[in-house]
Amino acid sequence: MSWLARIKEVVLGPRIQKDLYKDRRKVPRIKCHIEVILSDGGGNCLQGEVTDLEVSGIGCTVPRKLEKGAQFKIATNDFKAPAHAFNVESVSVEVIWCRKKKLDDYYVAGFRFTDAPEVLDNSWVHYVLKNFGMAGIPLEQRRKEIRVPSKIPLRCQSGENIIFEGSVYDISLGGIKMSLREDSPQVGQKVTLHIGTFEELPVLKCYAKILRSSLNVADMRYHVGAEFMKLNNSQVMLLGRYIKRLLQRSGAQ
Asked: Which of 48, 111, 141, 209 is most deeply packed, by most CB within 10 A?
């Protein structure tokens, strides 16, 4: 089975683990299985497996405990990429946390990337993200979780029958700001969003949690902030296409 098939098999199966990195930035992550080699620069190498990948770091299983702050280079030959698909064979990372996996003999660790965005954009990490629709936006912008302004139509559904009509005010990989007419859901409430359509892109249906809501006296509409919840692989890919298209239209790319 190819590396991409194995990743998709995992992503489309169990739900993505919550908060693996404990950084609470709510950026969508890819659940995967990619064998890697970690080298510490002193000639010592460890074999590991990337289990969780996103634009600012990775989660990885390792055979021993790693100290917080330790620096490594991570490389992989676990998949066959087209010629010149990427030029950077290994990426630099720093250990953020490491703990023993319950009932197992191995450890799980969270790493953050320490390379410059232009280096990551030419690495195997970027190649993997690209296959999931998350690499059309420069890594430097994604790290800042750029919010792209838009006027895409939107329906926010609370429960079975309560629907709030409005539009997308701005959107990012982690969440959305909505402009709603007449009223808004309560803070803390979980809602279903129907975003779009937009140009040739289909409706993006996903779950979100309301973080804030206020009446804007300038336009007499409710400006509502929400974070995305439990995005699956197809939703992440479609969200990436929405953001890429908006960036292209705004000239930000």
From this structure: 111
116: tokens are 């410059």
Sign for the pseudo-dihedral over CA of 43, 125, 92, 228: negative
Q: List, for residues 31-76, the tens digit of each pLDDT value.
A: 667 788 999 988 888 888 888 888 889 999 998 999 999 999 999 8
What are the residues facing 192 on neighbouring strands?
Answer: 157, 207
- For 140, other C-beta atoms within 10 Å of its C-beta total 14
Higher pLDDT, 96 or 234: 96
CA angle 41, 87, 66 (to 5 degrees): 30
DSSP state of 103: T
- Shortest CA distance to 176 belongs to which of 247, 239, 251? 239
Q: What are phi and psi of 238, to 5 degrees?
A: -70, -40
Please give the model's pTM, rounded to 2 decimal places: 0.46
pLDDT, one tens digit per residue, over 106-161 is 899 999 999 988 888 888 888 777 665 444 444 334 434 445 566 889 999 987 77
Write down the residue that tokens 């990426």 correspond to: 91
Q: What tokens appear for 243 in the block?
A: 């953001």
